[in-house]
């Protein structure tokens, strides 16, 4: 059955578990949405394998990805992170987690939850795609470009259209499992319980 799955999922056990249990499934919890947002911004220019390998270490280093704690990070904490082998040690990316935590919390204050805000872009209904090969899956879409622009206006960093589209895929706003992949239907069924 694994040979029918999305090809990227078969590179490692971590990716297979992530693909089978998380990617493309609707995610509504604000804490997990913030975690995925940070992980996707950290991925820019790197492989998802690298991010998954560092996910547990980053969760530890970044105070369980709690935006309320991260928004208070000072230069000392940033330097500590830049010297921590468990995390992605890119100064701009590390600093962006602080501005992204602040922007995230402002959205929570304004809209009641980040989940409500982000899912409103698709009317709280995941987009079901019908790609049969990886070459048919886009790097980004016009909607991802719009969300990227909106998030940048709200103070987010490292949040270009490609990162936003990867985020949309990871939280199930888009079900980009190939139609041949057995998980495609599982993710589709999970989406029917949203409304």
TrEMBL record:
GO terms for biological process: base-excision repair. Keywords: Glycosidase, Hydrolase, Metal-binding, Zinc. Its EC number is 3.2.2.20. One of its GO terms (molecular function) is DNA-3-methyladenine glycosylase activity. Transmembrane segments: none annotated. Gene3D superfamilies: Hypothetical protein, domain 2. It is an enzyme of class 3 (hydrolase). Zn(2+) binds at residues 6, 19, 177, 181. This is DNA-3-methyladenine glycosylase.
